[in-house]
Design a protein that fits this description.
Layout: H1 4-10, E1 14-16, H2 28-37, H3 39-46, E2 50-61, E3 64-74, E4 79-85, H4 92-108, E5 118-123, H5 128-135, E6 142-148, H6 164-187
Parallel strand pairs: 1-6, 4-5, 5-6
Antiparallel strand pairs: 2-3, 3-4
Helix pairs in contact: 4-5
Length: about 200
C-alpha cells in the first residue's frame, strides 16, 4: 500500500484523447484500436513516462485465460500498469476484476526488482462515491480515471459527412480527374498554341 500514494500522484484523474477519431457510439475494441493506432500520442497524454508492453495481454489463472486491454510500464515508478478500457460509467465489479489482474501480474509477471503493479480503469464517467466504496478495502493501487475526446461534428450533421476512411477513398477517386487539366497543359509542346 506504500506505493499507492505515488501511483495516484503520477496518474491523472482524467485523460484527453482528442486525437482519436471515434464514432458515437463506439465499442471498447474500437477505443483500444484507436489508441493503438496513435500509441505515441496516447503515451504522451498518459504522462510520457510510460512505455508500451502489449495490448490484450494474456494472463492464465486456474486454466482460464484473462486479457488485460493494455499493459504498460511506468519508468519512474518502476512498475507494470494494467489498463482496462471501459466505454460506460464505472461499475464496482471493474475494481474486483482489476484487483485480480494485479494479483496475477504481481505473482507471475512482475520481476523481482520492480514495484507492485498498479491499475488504471478508464471510463467515460464515474460517480466518486461509487468509486470510493468500490476501492475502500482493496489493497492494490487502482486509479479510476475518465477519458474524453472531442467529437467535433454535431451528431445531427454526422450523416452528411463521411468518416475519414470514406473521405480518403472519395478524394483518391477524384484526384486523377483534378490533375488531368494540369497534366495536359504541362504536356502541350511549347509554341503549339501560337498561330
Amino acid at each position: 500500500m506504500a506505493q499507492h500514494a505515488p501511483a495516484v500522484l503520477a496518474l491523472k484523474d482524467e485523460y484527453l484523447f482528442d486525437f482519436l477519431e471515434l464514432s458515437v457510439p463506439h465499442s471498447e475494441y474500437e477505443l483500444e484500436q484507436a489508441l493503438l493506432s496513435h500509441v505515441r500520442r496516447f503515451l504522451s497524454e498518459m504522462d510520457g513516462d510510460f512505455t508500451f508492453i502489449s495490448n490484450q495481454y494474456r494472463l492464465e489463472l486456474a486454466r482460464q485465460e484473462y486479457f488485460i486491454d493494455l499493459l504498460l510500464f511506468h519508468r519512474e515508478l518502476q512498475c507494470l500498469v494494467a489498463i482496462e478500457l471501459k466505454i460506460d460509467e464505472f461499475r464496482p465489479e471493474y475494481a474486483g476484476k482489476m484487483n485480480c489482474y494485479l494479483c496475477v501480474l504481481n505473482d507471475t509477471v512482475r520481476k523481482a526488482h520492480e514495484q507492485p503493479s498498479i491499475g488504471i480503469i478508464t471510463c467515460q464517467s464515474k460517480n466518486r462515491t461509487v468509486v470510493e466504496f468500490a476501492l475502500r478495502d482493496v489493497n492494490k493501487p487502482i486509479v479510476v480515471a475518465t477519458y474524453t475526446y472531442f467529437d467535433t461534428l454535431p451528431s445531427e450533421l454526422r450523416p452528411f459527412f463521411p468518416f475519414n476512411e470514406e473521405l480518403v477513398r472519395r478524394l483518391d477517386a477524384v484526384t486523377p480527374a483534378l490533375q488531368a487539366p494540369f497534366e495536359s497543359k504541362s504536356t502541350t509542346p511549347t509554341g503549339a498554341d501560337q498561330p
